[in-house]
Write a structure and sequence with these properties.
The chain has 442 residues and is of the alpha+beta class. The chain has 3 domains: 19-164, Beta-Lactamase (2-Layer Sandwich); 220-299, Orthogonal Bundle (Helix Hairpins), CATH 1.10.287; 307-441, Histidine kinase-like ATPase, C-terminal domain (Heat Shock Protein 90), CATH 3.30.565. It is 56% helix and 16% strand. The protein has helices at 8-14, 19-71, 75-89, 112-124, 164-205, 219-266, 274-299, 311-324, 343-360, 409-419, and strands at 92-97, 129-132, 139-146, 149-156, 307-310, 328-332, 338-341, 363-371, 374-381, 423-428, 434-441. The strands form 3 sheets. The protein has a 5-stranded mixed beta sheet with strand order 6-8-9-11-10. It has a 4-stranded antiparallel beta sheet with strand order 1-4-3-2. Strand 2 and strand 3 (139-146) form a beta hairpin. Helix 2 runs parallel beside helix 4, helix 2 packs antiparallel against helix 5 and helix 8 packs across helix 9 (343-360). The longest helix is centred in the first third of the chain and has 53 residues, at 19-71. The radius of gyration is 45 Å and the shape is rod-shaped.
């Protein structure tokens, strides 16, 4: 037994269940990873270089201003230099005379931008300084210790970063979304062909004559559709051959049986032969009934097409027919249960189940109810029931019992139910005998 990782069930539960969802996930994950790698490369190379250069530019402008103030000392000169720098460099500068700068360790707030500016100031200005990133959301306050006091510089934050990063991220996101949309459209077309094939297979399994489907999509899907069409044709040919063969056998057997019936009818009625003639006539009728059962088994449902039918009305007809035959049948049905059915076929299947029940019991309960996306029909009896080990074998053709019959009733019933995409099971009945549970999809 292969060992599975602890997170296997979690991953399996999180994965999409549809083919389209899984294929889109296979496209989305590599796409997101590739975009993330591209963004990291851009951020780690281009953006880092740009950030250092922008920080170096501001530090250089501050350095130039300080050099002018050193060459041309005096209060008036300092004011003129600060005014000129404000116009040239868009840096707001002012001197707070007589103050002493208290340098404290600052917390890195903006990451690389903070580090790059601090490094540039250390390299070019070489004076004690502090940076305040929190007082003004639009600028950073730089304070430098100069002989006149503290030089306060307000540098606009927009000069410390570039809008290229946003354009690049928008470009990455836009192209990723466009590529994913194109891939989703193509994948949806491919999955549509698979879904159409699945619907056709389900309809064919429910006995509907859908005809050959048109192969489309990828070559593998086309091959599957072509194989499905060939399978349909083989199944139809096999059923037709079986029906024709058994119809021919039935015709050949009915001819001598008809002659025998006529011969028995033409015998002169005498007290000595009356009982023998009646027994022989009953045997002939039993043989004709058996031949009819074999032919019905081979013919299946014939050309009847499924259409919306009120199942409750069909079950009421079956119960009424069984009552006319002398059976005690109780029905427990809702007002209506409408679903696509071949009404004659379902009527025959339920009739077979009810007949099988009344042959072994005194009381039969016929019920139906909707359960989720299916309808369940139950036939309960108070007879002796069937042992669990025999509940599957009784569905085999010609599996008869002491109560008589051809041994095809349950077989025909299961074939009809399965042709509707349903299933029939035998289990213990709450009223003491056997329960036949029929489940039909809506």
């Amino acid at each position: 037994m292969r060992a599975r990782l602890p997170g296997h069930r979690i991953v399996k539960r999180l994965l999409p269940r549809s083919l389209l969802g899984r294929n889109l996930l296979m496209i989305l994950i590599p796409l997101v990873l590739s975009q993330a790698v591209a963004l990291q490369i851009f951020y780690g190379s281009h953006l880092d270089v740009v950030s250092r250069r922008l920080s170096g530019g501001i530090a250089g402008e501050i350095e130039f201003t300080l050099e002018l103030m050193q060459r041309f000392p005096g209060h008036d000169n300092a004011m003129w230099i600060l005014h000129t720098s404000r116009q040239l460099f868009t840096l707001e500068m002012r001197i707070e005379p007589g103050r002493q700068l208290v340098v404290k360790p600052s917390v890195n707030i903006l990451g690389p931008m903070d580090d790059d500016l601090a490094q540039a100031l250390e390299e070019k200005v070489r004076l004690p300084f502090t940076m305040d990133w929190t007082s003004d959301p639009r600028s950073v306050l730089i304070r430098l210790q100069v002989p006149e006091g503290v030089l306060v510089i307000e540098a606009p934050r927009k000069r410390l970063y570039t809008g290229t990063i946003y354009l690049f991220v928008a470009w990455l996101g836009g192209t990723a979304a466009l590529l994913f949309l194109i891939a989703a459209l193509f994948m949806r077309n491919q999955v549509r062909a698979v879904r159409r094939l699945a619907r056709a297979a389900e309809a064919f399994g429910m006995g509907r004559d859908i005809g050959p489907i048109h192969p489309e999509g990828a070559i593998e899907v086309r091959q599957a559709a072509a194989a499905f069409n060939r399978m349909q044709e083989r199944v139809r040919r096999f059923l037709a051959q079986r029906t024709e063969m058994l119809a021919g056998v039935s015709h050949d057997l009915r001819t001598p049986l008809t002659r025998l019936r006529l011969a028995l009818a033409m015998l002169p009625p005498t007290p000595e032969t009356a009982e023998d003639v009646a027994e022989m006539t009953a045997d002939v009728e039993e043989m004709e009934r058996m031949i009819g059962g074999y032919l019905a088994f081979a013919r299946g449902e014939g050309a009847e097409q499924a259409e919306p039918v009120n199942l409750c009305a069909v079950l009421e007809e079956v119960a009424a027919s069984a009552r006319r035959a002398g059976a005690e049948v109780v029905v427990e049905l809702p007002s209506a249960l409408v679903l696509p059915l071949r009404a004659d076929a379902i009527r025959r299947a339920v009739t077979n189940l009810v007949d099988n029940a009344r042959r072994h019991a005194r009381r039969v309960v016929l019920a139906a109810e909707q359960r989720g996306r299916a309808v369940e029909v139950t036939v309960d009896d108070d007879g002796p029931g069937i042992s669990p080990e025999r509940r599957e074998s009784v569905f085999r053709p010609f599996e008869s019992d002491a109560a008589g019959g051809t041994g095809l009733g349950l077989t025909i019933a299961r074939d009809i139910v399965r042709a509707h995409g349903g299933e029939i099971l035998l289990e213990e009945s709450p009223i003491g005998g056997l329960r036949a549970r029929v489940r039909l999809p809506l």
